[in-house]
Structure prediction request, 352 residues.
Amino acid sequence: MMRVLVTGGAGFVGSHIVDALLARGDAVRVLDVLHPAAHAATPDYLDAAAELVRGDIRDGATVAAALHGVDHVCHQAAMVGLGTDIADIADYAAHNDLGTAVLLRELARARFAGRLVLASSMVVYGEGRYECAEHGLVRPGPRREADLVAGRFEPPCPHCGAPLAPRSIAEDAPPDPRNVYAATKLHQEHLAAAFERETGVPVTALRYHNVYGPRMPRDTPYAGVASIFVSALAAGRAPRVFEDGGQLRDFVHVRDVARANVLALTAPVPAPGAFNVASGRPRSVGEMACALHAASAAGAPAPVTTGDYRLGDVRHVFASARRARERLGFAADVPFGAGMAEFASAALRAAP
Prediction:
């Protein structure tokens, strides 16, 4: 039996990790601040078999107490999503970067000798991988607002301006964070890597792709696009699909993500480094909206493609899942169609 601390264990992904660990017979302690932007109260889905410590990860004394007696740490606590605007920048840096720094400091002070699994994100890549017929693999720069206004959503080749073909992105791609949240997730990886070099504690950074499933937050600025679509359908509104709906992502079910965390904690040999956690099969945002609509109650309004955009968004980013399969033994189990059908009627976390 392992004794595991799950930071952010009352959240969407964290609570599923708690469930997966408890199902194995492990002892689980949850450290969660229950931030009012995410929780109106202690969620009723959090298993009572887990010990809940309500506290802020930025507080060293709280973290030190939560670490007492644990074998491993699964660090999920973070502010997530793009947020609302640049005014969120200090909150993201405080919760994600400073919070991670405090955790790492207290792990070092405690002479921690277990494994640390860090929740990272595909947003560290920025735009995904692209290939030009003439110039081969290229990394396009940020899309220009003038192009987005004109409905030109596909990034051109930075050398010749020709159309590009999107390709799956592997963990060795250069990071290129393009919004505040992405910058903080990459900084978490850098802080954890420095901690690993100094202490020898193996750190596995799991780069989640587009996670969906029960307990996603509903109707908040930090909700994912899948949750926003489900909320719209439940309210009798048409899901609003940005751009032309052709944005490619990798949608992975939260139970698969939880299982990837357990594998990282229990692999026979620690697996330090970064790993994509994804299905390995890209789907468009429009395809996801249509799948949710098809699984919704009869009479639900069909998705509407709006042409709207957000400057912080990228066009295509989807994963190569090879490394996680070879080194962690992870492959996504939940099929896209079945997962979306379940999610269309799943219980979402109520807005505070």
DSSP finds ten helices and 16 strands in the chain. The chain has a mean pLDDT of 94. The CA atoms of residues 190 and 212 lie 26 Å apart.
